[in-house]
Amino acid sequence: MNIKIKKILKKKSKSKIVSLTAYSKNIAGILDKYVDIILVGDSMANVLYGLKNTHKITLDNIIQHTISVKRGVKKSLLVVDMPKGTYKNKIEAKKNAKLILNSTNCDAVKLESNSKNFDIIKELVNSKIPVMGHIGYTPQFKNKFKIEGKSKKSSNKLFKEALLIEKAGAFAIVLECVASKTSKLITDTLKIPTIGIGSSNYCDGQILVTDDMLGLSGFYPRFVKKYVSLNRLIDKAVKKYTRDVKLDKFPTKKNFLDGSKFGK
Ligand code: KIV
Fold it and tell me: Does domain 3-229 have CATH number 3.40.50.970?
C-alpha cells in the first residue's frame, strides 16, 4: 500500500486529518507544508472557471491542473477528482483513472457516489488504484443543495452507502453536508477515515475549498470559515500598482535592467 495512504489510515481516531483543495503549483506548495491531503477538486469548475456547476470539467482540465499541483507537492497525499461522466462503467472508470494516475503521478482518485457505483470502486481498487469515496451532497449527481442524513430514512441510506463504499475497498470517504448525528455514526462505525466538509467535527478530518477559506471565491456558507479576505488584499495591491503606473512611480531606476543582473 502507498506509504502516504498508510499514514492517513493510522490517523483514524488519533489525530485529525487536514485537507484542502489546490488547482495550481504555487498554492499547492504552500498547502503542502501543513496538510495531509491535497485534493484537485472538480470544484475548480465553479471556483476557477466560473461555471454554474461541476458538470463540464473535462479529464484534460483535471489532468493539466494536477500536473501543475504535483510540481508543488513534496509530502502530502495527492488525490484527484474524476470528472462527471468519466466513470460511468467499469471499463471507462479503469481507463480514465489509469490515465489520471499515469499522466500526473498522483496518489489516488476520488469518485462521487450515486448510491450504485460500488462495483466501480471495487474494480479500481482491484486494479491497484486507490480510491476515496464521496457521499452526502454530491454535486455531480445532485442539482439542488440539500443537507443529507437529517431524517432517519436519509441517515440509514447514507450509513449503508458508507458501509458499502468501505466494503468496496475505498481508503477514505468524504462526507459533504451531512448532518452531525449521521457523520458521527458513520465515523464511529467505519474503519476507514471520514473527511468532512459541512459535516461537523465528528469526522476524522476536514476539507475546505481553499479559495473559500482564503476569501477569494465569494462563496461563504455557514460551514466555511474565512481565515483571510484575500480578495481585499489583492484589490488593494492592484489599486496601488495602477496608481503607481499612472503617476509614473513604477518602474523606478531600481527596477531598470540596464547594466545590472536580471535577479535581485
Ligand atoms: O471538488 C471539490 O473540491 C470537492 C470537495 C468539496 C470535497 O469535492
Answer: no
Half-sphere exposure of 179 (CA within 13 A, CB side): 16
The burial class, CB within 10 Å (0-12 / 13-18 / 19+), for 247 is: exposed
The owner of cell 531598470 is 256
- Asked about 123 being catalytic, the answer comes back as no
Q: Which residue among 18, 19, 20, 21 has the greatest number of ligand 1 atoms within 8 angstroms of its CB, and so is best to mutate?
A: 21
Confidence of residue 250 (pLDDT cuts 50, 70, 90): very high
Contact 73, 32 (CB under 8 A): yes
The answer to pTM > 0.90 is yes
Nearest atom in ligand 1 to the alpha carbon of residue 112 is 8
Is 138 a pocket residue for ligand 1 (Cβ < 6 Å)?
no
Grid coordinates standing for 49? 472557471
